[in-house]
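FAQ: What does a multi-protein file look like?

Like this. Sequence, then tokens, then the next protein.
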Amino acid sequence: MRLVQFTADGASRVGARRNGSVVDLEAAGDAVGTPLPNSMVDLLSDPRWREKVEEVVAEVGDGPAVHDAADVELDAPVTGPEKIVCVGLNYVEHAEESDEDTPDSPVLFSKFPSAITGPETEIRWDTELTNEVDFEAELAAVVGKTARRIDRDEAKEHVAGYTVANDVSARDLQFADDQWVRGKTLDTFCPLGPDLVTEDELGDPHDLDIYTDVNGERLQDSNTQHMVFDTYDLVAFCSQAFTLKPGDLILTGTPPGVGAFREPPIYLEDGDEVTVGVEGIGDLTNTCANP
């Protein structure tokens, strides 16, 4: 199953992909008598969301609730989550290029929901605040079931699916502070998309190619099998400390090749096009702008 949030006729909607089209789940649910909400967080909060979506998509047929995929404008697949949990140094080679030891337990920090933006939007920053803006391709796990103090073998059932994230980072701010939040969570510094893909369609989330292209040049190229702590480890670990709720995001860390640790460093500039992608989910492309 591939879920999206999209804009059609000026309104934001939640949809499911079907054979080159996007089914508006709220409108389709009303048509077949299975009401569905109109936000991804609200949808995932329904314990029977998978069953209901499958039923609605199968029964709706064609009509005004079904849009040609080319006619919709994709938004971030999740907006307004309660939490965005990020994981640092979760690929061995990224820890090495950062001149850091591989951590013995997950290193957590956060972004704010106000940082979220979608595909084909601008990553924006003020050059009076930062001049060292970096890219980080990441696999993002989307929580689909409330999780509190669960074991690793329970974690899979608490994940709704996966999307692509760019953990955009203002390195000068990040390294100037004793913690990372300010440099990580400027507005637009959390692009997400294009789809939320459930694991039954995606396959093993721990064996997916992950990459970044800047202006067409491949700068990150790895595989999620190289994560130090996999998504199930991370869901279980986080749940020991705080409650994970439907729609919460866990950004699972970036592989090597980020701009800050290259010789010379490569930072994003006004007009750059940056694409981060994960095999089986898709490409997330944004342009860069200094307002």
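And here is the next protein:
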Amino acid sequence: MDPAADSYEISVSVENGIATLTGTVESRAEKQLAGRVAKAVKGIKELKNEIRVNYTPNRSDEEIKRDIEGRLKWDVYVDDILIDVSVTDGKVVLSGIVGSAAEKTQAIQDIWVAGVRSVDATGLEVKWWTRDEMRKKQPFVPKPDEEIKTAVEDAFLYDPRVASFKVDVDVDMGLVTLSGVVDSLIAKRSAEMDAHHTAGVQWVENRLKVRLAEPRPDDRIEEDVRNALQRNSLLDRYKFTVSVMNQTAYLYGTVDSIFEKILAKDVASRVVGVTEVANYITVSHVWEWKSDAEIKANVESELFWSPYVDSEDITVKVTDGDVTLEGVATDWAEADAAVGNAFEGGARSVRARLDLADGSEYTRYYAHDYEYYRYEHFYETL
């Protein structure tokens, strides 16, 4: 039922709740995608992903290495300065230093370009001091629009949800506009996130249209959305009301967390025929009272330990549980992460007034009971 995985030649067997996947796909990203789809099914206790990757591209080691170094360079969540890459017979060895476990995981994900047969990252160490003040104060250098355009297009090639579509990319002073036609809402949303993850991108205008060669009836789409929510192992305990009109899915119900609300939207987005999701699910979160001093200390701790934020550049003020963040952030991604950290520290609401390195401003207000786009995007990114 997943629009990106339905074309794969994959066989499934299940015994005592243990699912085994076999078959052949053309990239590791496709293998991982099939695994994620299977893991979400209710009742699965364990997954054995024995899908083989058909390494058809006959690429030189030097070509693979250049590809990997480019991916690391353009990933906003990876600092590639202290990372060394070597490739021998398609086998990649990473060595050097990164600033957090999250950064190491992201770097490993970037490695799997076409032609890579295995990855050894045991030599890539996590050292907190690589995120020290000296290295964080490097001047921000805007990237040329043409380079950003190429990097975004390359990112699409490695995303199995987007790779098969012709997505037009236009870049003007770091503002990326996506246009074209895709056949699923999850492909449209994945393309937007791929662009957001690219270094140098300041904002993304997503004008992609979702079109099916043969449109499906609303009642069939509605049934599939309802079944997809019931099959999901994290959402099956909730009762949702689903209606579909003109291929737009309307979701109603109550969940315990904003993560579950966003997950429900993601599940509905993967259903064939859905062109938009109106998410009216409410979150039964009750803000837990804490003193302003305790919230301030917790937020500052979250910022300090965050792998995405330089806490020394951001000040925290708290009044009656409402948090104000002021200071400097490198880009939108760091500003979004800081907002997420503030909520994790116990904020009732967050007001962000941050100057970005390119001279623009990030001024946003987030209430705990309202799902603003940027707050949602931060959780989707994680």
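Q: Is there any per-entry metadata?
A: Some entries carry free-text notes. For the entry above: The CA atoms of residues 193 and 381 lie 7 Å apart.
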